[in-house]
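Q: What changes when 6-O-phosphono-beta-D-glucopyranose is included in the input?
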Amino acid sequence: MKQFPKNFLWGASTSAFQVEGGYGEGGRGLANSDMRFIPEGQADFKIASDHFHHFKEDVALMKELGLKVYRFSFLWSRIMSDGHKVNEEGLHFYDQLIDELINQGIEPLPTLYHFEMPYHLIEEFGGWRDRRCVDAYVAYAKVCFERFGKKVKNWITINEQMCATTPDDMNGNLEKDDDKRHQVLYQMSYHMTLAEKITIGLFHKMIADGHIGHVVAMQSVYPATSDPLDVQAAMNAQDELMWSFLDLSIQGSYSHHFTSYLKKHGWYPEMLEEDQKYLREHPDFIGVNYYASLTVRAKRKDDDTSHMPPFFVSDQFYVVRNTKLKPTEWMHFGIDPEGLYMGMRAIYDRYHLPMIITENGMAYSDILEDGHIHDVYRIDYLEKHLAQVARLVDEGYPVLGYCPWSFVDLVSSHEGFGKRYGLVYVNRTNTDPKDCKRIKKDSFYWYQKVIKNNMLEG
Ligand code: BG6
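A: The predicted holo structure follows.
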């Protein structure tokens, strides 16, 4: 039996563009996610899980589950339809959601930026590649702090810079030339960091009794063999995929090795002297998103990378299968709870900031059988990962809480509605939105018991 601390924040996560829907309603503007290329037969983001119309029912389910905290995000395009003009109806929607949560005793934990932005900002100046996006984000954050700051005390700036800057049509980095694409990626990332840091300074002035955090796509990287070249490839991957983004966001500068890597390629971002005073700001906590570990070997000239997501394509490493881990339907790298432990240990020992798990979950094409979902595989996944969280807590690491991804089924960031993560089933398919009825899965009842007992059995 593993007991959790008295104030442990049991939560669950979603993100607005993946769950909300309500396309074209309530004065909402066009978002980058609305303009994304959607492969035939895959759900788009226009209805999603229809949380926009089901939010009261969803909050009632959260209450039934026993959640202490709900991690969600604001849709920037709902609050500022063109990225500049404030939409009162959009703010009103979030007022209602936040009030509903607070009335049910659930703490709101909003993320300001979870991959989504008003499309107009991409049309106007190319989104994050342009410095004007920094001002737009800070102005948006200020509107949110002013409106919700009295009742919402814990916030998140930006979700997963690694994925948010990855070359694709969501963020406007579709440069054909590889060199140029990387240069844009690191400039975008720098602008995000600058925006975050200015916002953190503003936050601490405006909501002095609050806390604001940064969320990382945590990578635990293993070398495929003990060949020193593979070991170096693993160090480099860890650097490129995680430490680079985190070092900049937390410490305001890259490591020596990563600085020299970027300079050698001509990818070091343009930074202004006047930015230095902002770069000293740092978040109050780190949100950790973790799904699986990564295994790499040294890169060879003829390696085929055509099947890899863009962020795993690099001249420093090559991603391979880990033969010790068993791949599952959607989790191609295999399930690895130990990776959660090792990654969080390394993050804490580098930055010494409190941590909260903001995402951790198991994708599966769940099947409805006589009105039930018997997702034993998800229970097994969550149980094993929670055991590692308990281990960290036991060793004295400041882990504030745990938010599995996702509260309800939602549209995957790039693989449609068939890839389900939810504790609650949403009755729709990729091509047929049906009634979006909510059905509690077995994992819902399992998690409810864990929360109630504040303890993991076994
Ligand atoms: C995280 C994102 O990277 O992974 C989520 O923050 C995303 O938005 C989740 O949904 C799972 O990834 P995917 O691609 O399966 O949806």
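Observations recorded in class: Residues 2-452 form a domain with the TIM Barrel fold (CATH 3.20.20.80).
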